[in-house]
Structures are given as C-alpha cells and as structure tokens.
Write a structure and sequence with these properties.
The protein is α/β, with parallel strands linked by helices and about 450 residues long. About 50% of the residues lie in helices and about 10% in strands.
C-alpha cells in the first residue's frame, strides 16, 4: 500500500512552526499537528502518515518514549527527531532505538524537506539515477568489445561488471540486468579467446608482463604482509565469485581497512589445480615432480588437496629463507566449534594461520544435485543472497572478528569462481571419468 503524502508533526510548540508547515504544504504535503504524545498516538490510530516529525522535550511523555509506541503501531514508520536538545546522551538514545534522523533546532524549512525527501523518495531517486548512469555507461562498455584489452584492463572491466550486476540486482531493474547479462555472455567468449592466446606466453615467460597467477599469491601478497607484521590469518573461501565478494565486503569493511588486489587463476581453474598452486607456489607438473607420492598416485581428486599445509610451509621457507610456523585447517560444518576454540591460540603465535572454507563450493555444486538448493539459489542474485546469509553466521566471519580483536592482518582470497550454466552438455564416458564439472578426462563410451 502506498502511503499518503502526509506528515504528522508532534511538538508542544507547534504553533510557532507555522512557517515551516506552510513551506511543506507548498511542496505538496499535508501536515497534521499534535501538541502531546497521546494526541499523536490517537491520530496515528485513526489514519496512516508518511512520516512523523517529533520533539523530544514535551510535557508528559518524552519523545524517545513515544517512538517506541509509534513503532509498535507501525514498525515501518519513519521518525525524525526535531528538537532543541543537543545532549549527547539523548542523541545516543535516539540512535539506539533507530530513529531515522535527528535535527537540532533551529532548523530551516529546506533542511526538513531534505530529510523528508531522502527518507520517503530516496530509493526511487537513487534507482532513477542508477538507471540513467547504467544506460550511459552500457554504451561505453559495449564499445570496448573487440578492443585489444591488456590483462589489467580485463580486470578493471570484469570488476566493473560485477559491481553493476550487484547494484542492478539490488535496485530491481530486470530489463537492465538482462542487458548486462547479455554483455557478460559475450565478454566471456572474448575472454576465453584472450586466455587461449596469451596464457601459453605467460607460462613460457614468467618474467615478462603477465598478471599475478595462482602460483604468485604467496610471493606477491602473503609474504610481504608476513614479513612486516610477523603473523597473518590466511583465509581461502573455495569457489567464491567476484560478485559474491562484492556483497560480503559490506560485512568485512566494518572490521578492517580493506585493500583489494586481483590475480588470474591458473588453468584448469578447478580446485585440485588452482588451490594447490596457491599453497605451493608451483604449477601442477612441478608439484607432481617434487611430490609424486602426493600427486601422481592420487586415487581421487579430493586427495589431491590433502597436503596444502605442508606445501604452504615449503613455499614460505623458500621465499623467506627460514622455517615459518604454519597452522592449517580445512573447515567443514562439523568442525566449526573446534576451530573457534583453537583459533585464539593460533592467532597469538607468529607465523601463518591458514583456513580453507568449502561451504560456497559445496553450495555451488550442490545446486545441480539438490532440487531444494536449486530452488533457493536459482540464479546469480539468489546465490549472492544465500552466500551473504551464510557468511553472516559463518565461522569465516567469526574468524575475521577474532583476528580483528587481536590486531592480526587477514589475507582473504579464493582459488576460483563459478559461472551459472544455462546450456548444459551431456558427456558420455565410462565410470572412471572425472566427476569435475570444469574438465573431463577418462575413456569415452
């Protein structure tokens, strides 16, 4: 139901605010006045209002007390305190009960109009501006298709698209979101061709101008922090998409000053290859040559990631020139409680505490196996929402909060992301074919 454009002003000196009331009425509002809290509640029970302007210091009931009763009648009612009280305690109380804004008298009519406009029409105004900005920027983004982009420009391009995706989804603009998805599909083809052309050169010439790869995460991002701080929490959230990180950053930024860097995953981007490359600093063939007992004889893909802690310790010793204490844990739901009991002791010690979280990977792959999961995470927007809901109550956030309490720097990353597949392909193979969705090897039938 759309609220009428009406204001209820509650103030025992409301007669002295006639000029303000006339100004608001000239702007198209109907302004009702109440001199006491009981009168205001009676009016609210009689009809709905768009917003309440409320004084704090009135005879009888305080304005702060009245807010509680107003919210009991209508939890969604915007309430703005317009009061002479500059007391910090009153301000804190108002913030504590979630007053929507706080103005100290004397106030100008346009100040009040500005607050009312923001609260009542802010979402609509922002949505209109977002649509205009995207339409303008979309033409520019489309124009970059076919351009000879360098690896840094590809990163900027993909990051911008991920941020537009999140913003458009939150603004409920399905038409613009569809246009963005069409552009993303085209760009994925372009990017695949770019990787096919340049990836062999990156491998052949590691000293040339190439992006940081999975094998460079330790040297470029982890070791500099470790050497300057002495201790570090290293978190790998398996299969985390960039757009998922965009919504999770809102939960992380109140804890830390967030600095973002980007790297390219090695190919294949699957966990046995990409995550091992992060922990070892080695390409798969180099791991197999150095540790054939770990890699070459592995009977299943799961066991290929069974030695990440040892690989990280080896990599750090080579990079730093001395042994570095590594505490490694792979966290499943059943072990969350044990982790949080051990984590304070881990973070109190020098070295690296490395945690791997598999929930997002399990959620992403589980969509293809569970009708319930597919229903609640049907598309990218739903997957982002579900990921955020999990993260808010997850051991990942609990670990970050513990690190923040202890002043420990955190390096958070992922080994790869995922793409929502709309055109499935059927693979016919014998039972020994790999179950991995990113690549297949085995004998065809």
């Amino acid at each position: 139901m759309v609220r009428p454009k009406t204001i209820l002003w509650v103030d025992d000196e409301v007669d002295g605010l006639a000029a303000h009331r006339r100004f608001l009425e000239d702007q198209g509002f109907t302004v009702a006045a109440a001199a006491h809290g009981d009168d205001a509640l009676a009016l609210l029970r009689r009809q709905p209002y768009s917003i309440v302007l409320l004084d704090e210091q009135m005879p009888g009931r305080r304005g702060l007390e009245l807010i509680v009763e107003i919210r009991a009648l209508d939890p969604a009612m915007p309430v703005v305190m317009v009061t002479q009280s500059e007391d910090e305690g009153t301000l804190r109380e108002a913030i504590g009960i979630e007053v929507d804004d706080y103005l100290v008298k004397p106030v100008q009519p346009r100040q009040i109009l500005s607050v009312i406009t923001r609260l009542l029409e802010g979402d609509r105004i922002r949505q209109q501006r977002l649509a205009r900005d995207f339409v303008t920027r979309f033409r520019e983004l489309e124009g970059r298709r076919g351009a000879n982009l360098a690896w840094r420009e590809w990163i900027e391009f993909v990051v911008e698209l991920a941020r537009w995706e999140v913003r458009l989804s939150a603004s409920n603009e399905p038409g613009l979101s569809d246009a963005l998805r069409t552009l993303q599909r085209s760009l994925r083809k372009d990017f695949a061709e770019y990787i096919a052309r340049h990836y062999p050169r990156w491998l052949a010439g590691p000293e040339g101008d190439r992006p940081p790869l999975s094998v460079d995460v330790g040297a470029e991002f982890l070791v500099p922090v470790l050497q300057s701080k002495g201790r570090l929490l290293f978190v790998v959230v398996d299969c985390l998409r960039l757009d998922q990180w965009e919504v999770l950053r809102e939960l992380v930024s109140p804890l830390f000053d967030v600095e973002e860097s980007y790297y390219y995953s090695i190919v294949p981007t699957a966990t046995p290859f990409a995550r091992n490359a992060i922990f070892s600093g080695l390409f798969p063939m180099e791991i197999a040559a150095r540790h054939p007992e770990w890699w070459g004889q592995a009977s299943d893909e799961e066991s290929l990631n069974a030695h990440e802690g040892e690989l990280l310790a080896e990599q750090l010793q080579e990079l730093v020139g001395r042994p570095v204490a590594v505490r490694y844990e792979k966290v499943f739901s059943s072990g969350e409680g044990d982790l949080m009991r051990r984590l304070p002791a881990h973070l109190a010690q020098d070295g690296v505490t490395a945690l791997v979280f598999n929930f997002v990977d399990q959620l992403t792959h589980g969509r293809s196996e569970s009708a319930i999961l597919y229903e609640v995470a049907r598309d990218e927007a739903a997957l982002r929402s579900l990921t955020r809901t999990w993260f808010e109550r997850s051991p990942v956030l609990a670990a970050l909060q513990e690190a923040e309490r202890r002043g420990v720097t955190v390096l958070l990353t992922t080994d790869h992301g995922s793409i929502h597949c709309e055109t499935p392909a059927t693979v016919y193979a014998k039972r020994d074919a790999t179950a991995n969705l990113r690549y297949k090897f085995g004998e065809r039938t």
